[in-house]
Specification:
about 100 residues, single chain
Length: about 100
């Protein structure tokens, strides 16, 4: 089953395991852009679980991985993940009218 399917079916533990292994492999091979991308997906997973603090920490880690590297697209994605996480969290926490 693909990662998108795991997310869609709320199989977060399985998705987390897949992402952790992917992050480890990309770190081992030195593929920083892909490692950053996987860490951003981990941030998205944390946000989907409602874990705002972890999501923000992971988004910052993704940015740190590609900071001062020739990976502008990954840096942009990492910068965008932080406000998106906050927006998602605020929408879920807003009281019902």
């Amino acid at each position: 089953m693909g990662l998108g399917s795991l997310f869609a079916q709320s199989q977060f533990d399985e998705a987390s395991a897949v992402l952790a292994e992917s992050a480890r492999l990309f770190a081992h091979t030195g593929n920083l852009p892909m490692q950053s991308n996987v860490v951003l997906k981990q941030a998205g997973l944390a946000a989907a679980r409602g874990d705002r603090d972890t999501a923000l920490t992971l988004a910052q880690q993704a940015l740190d991985i590609v900071a001062d590297k020739d990976s502008p697209l990954q840096a942009i994605y990492a910068h965008m993940r932080q406000p998106l996480t906050l927006i998602c969290w605020l929408q879920k926490c807003r009281p019902m009218n």
